[in-house]
Amino acid sequence: MTSSGTYTKHRANEELFNQLFRTYYKQTYYSVYRMLRDRGLAQDVVQETFLKAYRHMDTLQQEGRRGAWLKAISKNTAIDLYRKRLRTMDVLDDAVLLRTRSVEDEVQRRADVKVIRNRLMKLAPLYRQTLLLVYEYGMTYEQLASYHKTSVSAVKSRIHRAKLKFRSLILEGVVSC
């Protein structure tokens, strides 16, 4: 491709990005804010979302899927940020706990956490995500229903099924010990 062709493609991507930003900024921000309930973090996630979108503009093929594409990027970015914060908090918690707990208690707690995380990873992705969004992110059933574009009763059923499956996975580990 010639340099003028490259420039034309770059300019088209830039115009498409500006249109995406104008059209979807508020929707993306409010979606992320509902998930995180922190304005500063929501702004960080939205900024990172649009940076990722800009870097990958050439992968967007279908015009009608732009909103869904951005929503997926923002959701994954928010989850990544949350996980990063959890790791940071774990390190801080570990430092505090090591000062206040006995070594035996700390070893047992870490083993328990590891087992729980391993069992959680065995859940189907939809169940795992549902449990994490409700119990880790603190989303309400209504927020989760809005996020997944489903009814509150469907969310309650999904959470119930996820809890049953998770409970069976935990008990499976207890019985095998």
From TrEMBL:
PROSITE patterns reported for this sequence: SIGMA70_ECF (PS01063)
GO biological process, one term: response to stress
GO molecular function per UniProt: DNA binding; sigma factor activity
Domain RNA polymerase sigma factor 70 region 4 type: 116-165
Keyword annotations: DNA-binding, Sigma factor, Transcription, Transcription regulation
Domain RNA polymerase sigma-70 region: 20-87
Record keyword Transcription present: yes
InterPro entries per the UniProt record, alphabetical: RNA_pol_sigma-70-like, RNA_pol_sigma-70_dom, RNA_pol_sigma70_ECF_CS, RNA_pol_sigma70_r2, RNA_pol_sigma70_r4_t2, RNA_pol_sigma_r2, RNA_pol_sigma_r3/r4-like, WH-like_DNA-bd_sf
Family classification: Belongs to the sigma-70 factor family. ECF subfamily.
Protein name: RNA polymerase sigma factor
Biological source species: Paenibacillus oceani
